[in-house]
Amino acid sequence: MIKSILITGANNGIGKETARQFAMLNGTEKIYLACRNEEKAKHAKQSLEQSTGKSIFKIVLMDVSNIDSVRSAVKSLTEPIEAIVMNAGGMGGKNPAQKTSDGVSQIFATNVLGHVVLFDEMVKANLLTKVALFAGTEASRGVPKMGMNRPNLKTSSIDEFSSICDSSYFGNEFDPMQAYGLVKYVATMWMSSEARKNPNLRIVTISPGGTKGTAVMDDLPFFSKIMYKYLMMPILMPLMGMVHKLELGAKRFIDGIIDESYKSGVFYGSKEPVLTGSVIDQSTIFADLKNNTFQDNANMAIHKFIKD
Is 304 helix (H, G, I), strand (E, B) or coil? Predict the structure, then answer.
């Protein structure tokens, strides 16, 4: 039983649905909605209270693309939390390859850097007691039917992982869709590395699969967003077995949090070639995912960009 949980990106989409489903479980006492926009957070809180009939939601203002915001949010926590779902993310806005003040790309900051700081700070302050879950994606092991290539790193060294963090890896051919998969791949490797360093916690990466209603593609360029939201998602992807309902995507997170058969250090996602159905250990598809050296190199690469 998990009594308390913090969910990033909880004001809409799969984050909000995860909060709703978790609220309906027996024993849930407090759900922290970590959001960057206070007005949207308040609206989500009110909506969740109405749909669940429970007043167990607490807003935590947090912009995961901003390290200072994350650290300030962690300092505002007054008691330990049993689980976190690191769900917030996206395609990096209008300029996904642009570097932030921390030296990483916008797409990396949005999806990964703030979550690493969140995890580090909570562990350091003894504020996380049981489970950490990161929202992964099958793009991290390749989805040929969607035109997403499997990561093909030359050395998987610290420097090569660092080049993904700051987007120099892509040169002049930056494609947000391909970059998204690689950025999430770095995060998945970081999670597996941290699982070995923190045996007292269960640390898992789980992909929600192809999920309707998620906001992850909302910051794609205009024409790409229109193509994705109004052609691929409602028409083409269902025909290919590549999409399921929002409730099913969120349930993957719920299962990962409460079901201890999900092993620490493992990345769970859909079987090939679909993005729906039951989940399996993704290293059975892409062996690099279980390479301890590669995992630690990714972890060290990320931390090069985090200043005390």
Answer: coil
Q: Is the dihedral of CA 97, 99, 100, 105 positive or negative?
A: positive
At 256, which amino acid appears?
A: G
Report the 3 state secondary structure along 180-244: HHHHHHHHHHHHHHHHHHCCCCEEEEECCCCECCCCCCCCCCHHHHHHHHHHHHHHHHHHCCCCE
Burial of 223 (0-12, 13-18, 19+ CB in 10 A): exposed
Residue of higher predicted confidence among 232 and 255: 255
Alpha helix ranges (H) inside the chain: 13-23, 38-52, 67-76, 106-108, 114-124, 158-165, 176-197, 222-227, 237-239, 246-258, 292-303
4-303, CATH topology level:
Rossmann fold (3.40.50)
The predicted structure's pLDDT at residue 308: 78
Q: Cα–Cα distance between 131 and 193 in angstroms, integer?
A: 15
Look up residue 111 and give its two tokens.
Answer: 């999806």
Q: How far is CA 181 from the centre of its chain?
A: 12
Environment class of 298 (CB within 10 Å of its CB; exposed 0-12, middle 13-18, buried 19+): buried
Domain range list for the chain: 4-303
Q: Is the pLDDT of residue 240 over 80?
A: no
Rounded Cα gap, residues 192 and 119, in angstroms: 13
